[in-house]
Design goal:
It is built from 13 helices and 15 strands. By secondary structure, it is an alpha/beta fold.
Length: about 400
């Protein structure tokens, strides 16, 4: 699916000697500001100085800025926060490079959801986090990397508890918690016992747990019983047997009970984990996801995921409002990241991470993970990404 990228209309740049006297490095003009977390819906200009939002005013003279972007007809939202991605480059070759995709999709914050183990954290920091323009965080994967094939599987996993927990403690600036894939297709008959080990790890070190759910066994009830406040269940709208919706199309009571305890439910589209019918049943039952994420990696980059705006468009098609979708891709997932004041919002003094979005009207084909196709009449399209006060360029 091709995306047109908004480059904006740059104002005439002042002579170098005059630049340092200008109050703004960048002004975004004429856009409609949308920040559902604050009830913000306003036509206004944004002035950016350095990496912060310095002003929000009805009109800012473009002559006061080094560069301007005309966002007329566009929504200016907080930078999108993708809570489930895979951007670590490992031997599997599944990771994608964050910045080129961020530049064309409006995503300013990426969370790698378990592409690396504790002993790869230094590489994650040095070669993924530090060079990137986008902000990148991660959940570390539980498994150690040095299993003896003759060793008991559960002993092997439990051997990773101590080093994994200590690694997260030492790298809390970039690591959010622990990721585990639970389901018979992922870990066979050991899946539930491995999840119990992950629970023990997170309890011992007071860390959040992100759990991928797919195919039973174990059952949804067994998984939800082990999830606590602050934990994340990802792939919540899958159509598999380990899901939040039963065969009658009703949300399972254990999923509702988990939500009441403060467990977070995330979309995590992925190659096989988003189903239109399952999502529709959950939404019709009033079970709205807490966050919308892509689970993007190189096997789904060219379909069915493509990018965050495409994933957002699918939830829009299913009946969520523009405001609901934006909330679940900005301030909501920013609460889970919880590493920077003002992430996911538009406010003076907050980070200058912004997305320029358009809601196009027409006929657009969208597909889910099982290749079920629908025709949508609206879709989100990214027209620009501002991160740390700078406009990202498509490379």
């Amino acid at each position: 699916m091709q995306r047109r990228t908004f480059l904006g209309l740059a104002g005439a740049l002042p002579a170098w000697g005059q630049r340092r006297w200008l109050p703004y490095d960048l002004v975004i003009r004429n856009g409609e500001l949308r920040d559902p977390s604050q009830g913000l819906r306003r036509q206004a200009d944004i002035g950016i100085a350095g990496d912060k939002i310095a002003a929000i005013e009805d009109h800012i003279d473009p002559a006061r800025a080094i560069e301007t972007i005309d966002a007329k007809g566009l929504l200016v939202t907080p930078g999108l926060v993708d809570l489930h991605t895979h951007c670590f480059h490992s031997a599997t070759g599944l990771g994608v490079e964050a910045d080129p995709i961020a530049a064309r999709s409006g995503v300013t914050t990426w969370v790698d959801a378990g592409s690396f183990a504790w002993d790869q954290t230094a590489g994650f920091r040095r070669f993924i986090v530090q060079p990137a323009q986008a902000r990148i965080y991660g959940y570390v994967y539980l498994y150690p990397n040095d299993r003896n094939p003759d060793e008991d599987v559960i002993k092997y996993v439990r051997r990773g508890i101590e080093p994994t927990g200590k690694t997260v403690e030492k790298n809390r600036d970039i690591l959010l918690g622990v990721k585990f894939q639970v389901g018979s297709n992922m870990n066979g008959r050991y899946s539930l016992e491995m999840l119990k080990a992950a629970r023990e790890l997170c309890d011992r070190f007071q860390l959040p747990l992100m759990a991928h759910i797919s195919f039973a066994p174990p059952s949804t009830a067994e998984v939800m019983a082990l999830m606590k406040k602050g934990d994340v269940v990802t792939h919540c709208y899958n159509g598999h047997s380990l899901s939040i919706v039963d065969e009658a199309g009703k949300v399972k009571p254990e999923a509702r009970e988990a939500r009441e305890r403060g467990v977070w439910f995330d979309v995590g589209h992925g190659l096989g984990s988003f189903n239109f019918a399952a999502a529709k049943k959950a939404l019709d039952a009033g079970f709205v996801c807490d966050s919308i994420s892509t689970d993007i990696y190189n096997l789904n980059l060219n379909g069915p995921v493509y990018d965050m705006p495409t994933t957002m468009s699918k939830l829009l098609y299913l009946g969520m409002s523009v405001e609901d979708v934006i909330l679940r891709t900005t301030a909501n997932p920013a609460k889970v990241v919880n590493r920077m004041e003002g992430m996911g919002q538009i406010k003076v003094g907050g980070p200058a991470d912004l997305a320029l979005l358009e809601v196009e009207e027409g006929q657009f084909r969208l597909i889910d993970s099982q290749r079920n196709a629908v025709s949508a009449t609206k879709r989100f399209v990214s027209r620009g990404t501002i991160v740390r006060g700078r406009r990202m360029r498509v490379v």
